Amino acid sequence: PSTRLNIFHLVFLCFSLFSHGSCPVLECWFMKEKVSGGLSGGPNQDKSLLYVHKHADSHRAESHDAPLEVNPDRLYFVTDPAATLCHRSLNPRRGSSNKPMCEINPLHPQPSTLELAVPLTEPALSPIYLHADWLSTALQSFDKTMSISAITRAPTGTKEHDVILTLTTKTVLVQSRLGAPVLLDCSFWADPSSPLTGTGFAVEWRYQFRGDGRLVLAYDGKSDRLSHTGEEGATLDFEALHGRGNASLILQEAKVHHSGIYICSVYLPYLQAQVAMELQVVEPPSLSIHPSPLPLTAQGQTINIQCEASGFAPLSLDLHWEFKGADGNTKVLGSGSLSSHRQLWDGTYTQSSRLELDTADLGRAGEVACVGVHPGGTRRVSVEINLIGNSPSIEDSMAMVGVALVLYGLIKLVSWSFSGSEKRIKTTYVEGFKARRWTSFSLVIQI
Ligand SMILES: *[C@@H]1O[C@H](CO)[C@@H](O)[C@H](O)[C@H]1NC(C)=O
Transmembrane stretches, by residue range (predicted)? Predict the structure, then answer.
């Protein structure tokens, strides 16, 4: 019975592979247009399904297996010759709870008001072509690494859509070290058979951070020139742009002020698609301890140690102190007294911490470390600590006894070998004592 079950599964698997190819059936939310003036009653979004295929003739009566809860008006059959929507990260395993996100909005093509894109719309285009059902679909892959924006067109009244323009980014979130080159990925595909693709395109990159927006770069593909460069070191690969629709933004050197949201927009006459991505410039701190090495300190005294963290971004840093004793045990000493942050000319931050270290119960030796935990990594710097005891420790007493015994042995040896001149040796010792103020314990040995 188990083999029969496996064969059944296999047949089922083959069936689903053949019926959908490698292109997914996308579950999307269709966002209804707000009716102006009317009270918004009922839900403003509908569940919908997008059956995607590379070839138009692959759509065959698929609506039969549509789930009942989806309104048949919200089933769409999309032909995507470039197979952008067939990427495997849009097609999760069956039963997986991580699903791609998908939202559909109705679209009304309009001549662009953007200065850059106005020349594109000059030639009068067939109104019949524009007069159709247009949809704009925004997708994010289930692993959240890829975003796609797709514009599709269907003859009025039908549900059979053709992909006209897609825009993809595979760098939804980019982290970069300070000073490293950055590539923000953005590529587009436009249907070459569409009347909208003959007259050229335009690309625009915008930057947004906490409500502050600016134009980074604008490229007019019709006259092949950059019409705006608001950012030093920001450029496109023009060969890749014209050859493969690769509109990726290249930043030669990541700076702290580059952190933020970037929006890549591609314009065709009457159409515009955009995708957004985030760049985080992350640099861990450099740590230093002062004074280093630490001055010799008597046990029980307090030592003041300073740790400086510099050159880090973003702001979030946890600075704290640790003590590692000679026995290997580590003790967390807290964060000390922290200074406020200072921002340097390059946008990175500095912060310092002062530790008043009470040495009373630290033992005789160990290591004090300053630890900085930062999104860019954890850094630590340490300094050795050696304390001078006030009263002799047990080890010191043992050593003294040892030295005394060795001396005693030596003297005995000397007195045996010169047993005849014992008196002379004694005299020498007494003179030595007078001259150099020997300690009392060597006198004891002599007697
Ligand atoms: C786009 O162009 C950039 C710069 O030449 C390159 O590094 C990147 O790999 C290209 N992306 C694709 C998807 O080809």
Answer: 398-418
pTM of the full predicted structure?
A: 0.76
In sequence order, what E strands does 230-270 have?
Answer: 234-236, 249-251, 260-268
Q: How far is the CA of 433 from the centre of ligand 1 (A)?
A: 88
What tens digit of pLDDT does each residue of 265-305 get? 999 988 999 999 999 999 999 999 999 898 888 888 899 99
pLDDT at 71: 86
Note the pLDDT of residue 227: 78
pLDDT in tens, 67-76: 778 888 899 9
Pocket test for ligand 1, best of 147, 168, 170, 185 (most atoms within 8 A of CB): 185
* pLDDT given at position 119: 67
- What pLDDT, in 10s, does the model give residues 90-100? 887 777 778 88
Tokens 């029980």: give the residue: 300
Cα–chain-centroid distance for residue 329? Answer: 33
* Amino acid code (one letter) for 269: P
The CATH number of the domain covering residues in 21-281: 2.60.40.10
Nearest to 109 by CA among 275, 274, 273: 273
Instruction: Give 277's Cβ-side CA count (13 Å radius).
Output: 29
Distance 188 CA to ligand 1 centre (A): 12
Domain covering 286-388: architecture: Sandwich (2.60)
Nearest of 278, 251, 248, 240 to residue 266 by alpha carbon: 248
The tokens for 18 are: 């053949």
Q: Do domains 21-281 and 286-388 have the same CATH topology?
A: yes
Centre of ligand 1 to C-alpha 113, Å, is 30
Domain ranges of the chain: 21-281, 286-388, 397-446
Residues with CB under 6 A from ligand 1: 183, 187, 237, 240, 244, 246, 248
CA of 235 from ligand 1 middle (Å) equals 12
